[in-house]
Amino acid sequence: MTDKSGNSSKDDKSATRQGLRQNLSQFVILIIVNGFVGAMIGLEQTVLPLIGKNVLGIDSNVIILSFIASFGLVKAFLNLYAGALAERLGRKKVLIVGWLFGIPVPFILLFAPDWNWIIFANVLLGVNQALAWSMTVNMKIDLVGKEKRGLALGFNEFAGYISVAIVGFATGYVASIYGLKPYPFYMGIAFALLGTLLSIVIVRDTRKFMQLEIKNHDQPNNEPDAGNAGSQSKLTFKQVFVQTSWQNRTLLSVSQAGLVNNLIFGVTWGLFTLYFASFQLSVNDIGFLKALHPAVWGLLQLGTGSLSDRIGRKVLIYSGMIVQALGIWIVLYGNSMIAWIGGMSLIGVGTAFVYPTLLAAISDIAHPAWRATSLGVYRFWRDLGFVFGALGVGFLADFLGANAAIHTVAWIALSSGIFVFVVMRETISKKA
Which one has a higher pLDDT value, 271 or 376? Predict the structure, then answer.
């Protein structure tokens, strides 16, 4: 009910209460939507590098991995503006626009006559992921409030990356029976259409929850280095960019860890496919190994996101980066199926420690009025990791060999974990 002036009644205010239990139905719908967002990446995980090498006859690692670079570059730059756009237009509108860019992707992959079309499809996929995934993150944070951020983000990333794993394995299995084209891409058409329809028909905008949090906002954390950032509700885009990228050393630690984390993901997405293929593994076996990383990552996030709410963010971030380095070295030196299974699983464990925790740490520090923008800046740096992983590591693989390139990535991951340990400050008070 509303009064004559149009003000919300008490019943309407109760409908905008933050909390997981109070908003469970929309929370679940957003989990499903992000599952479809993740499925769009899973569509490419196994088959696309093999199409480049075996169907189109491309020998260069850099050229094959260029589809990941185009995806990451577009996604990174759009992430900068997705949050600010959502704060002006509302989360739901941006989510729908993201899906509209995703619909053509499986059709282009299905009919692409050469690699340039594959690169173009991944430009569109970058737009889709930047807008749609970003909005599911922000909308869940809006709904649950500050006490359950880690839990919310754990569920969000669980849905996305379990879908990456399932679809990556499924496309590899289908390709091993029916070939690399066309059947694996038929699934992508269904994912894009279902994700779009759910976003238009069922998802509700969460801007009112964000406005409620701004109204009731208190100091968001107990971190001295982050306090000034969190207490300022009026910051320009440039100020948010500087805070998130450099000025606040905890946010700097988070941003560099995100970049390295996605550098690793880009390498497992592209170069690991070619690396495993060099051992004459079947497409089905490659699909299984590739699925282990996002599967373990996705499942464990259900626990690690909530765990970070209790024990703190920092310990999970630096330990997760170190565990990923160990997993990469096991993959590199194992040279057996058992070792590869163990290594890929360990990379997944490390990523599960890191991924939702980084997002939660940003949310701890940023004021709700510019939190979406700060998350966008973080995601900009994070997704540039795809570019460095595809182009930088691809060049290393072409000139020094895949082994040297993968070894370098492991050292980068270890160095990132040490940096977090030394520089980052905890963003929440640890609970008993």
Answer: 271
